Amino acid sequence: MSHIKILKIVMKAHGDMKDLTQYVREFVEECDKENGAVLIFSKGSTGAVTTIEYEPGLKKDFPRIMDKIAPYGEDYEHHKTWNDDNGSSHVKASIVGPSIVVPFQNKKLLLGTWQQIVIINFDTRDRTREVILQIL
Questions:
Q1: Is the pTM of this model over 0.90?
Q2: Of 89, 111, 124, 135, which Cα lies nearest the Cα of 19?
Q3: Which residue range(s) make up the domain with 127?
Q4: How many domains does the chain have?
């Protein structure tokens, strides 16, 4: 049987990043498996999940660099389709990706010392992001 939990994370626009590591750690500790992997999936097409050293400098660096890759305010074909302004948000989220899988052993996430699991809201407006956790 699959074990699933849905988190709702309130986020600001334009690259807000939140650390999910503790939520994922608690989810794994509560599951009935000693060893396995946990899927962390961001529902929606303008949010992304990755790992990073979650510290103040990188929390500023990451959105700044992503904005160089897919700048807000450019002329995106997506804007013509939906008459909105978040084409860059979709591009950034697609580059980073909506999910990661993290292995665990003895109910402990096998992350590096400075590696945290994060959700990023690339949208141009504040959002409540749904993050799905599932034991594999």
A1: yes
A2: 111
A3: 4-135
A4: 1
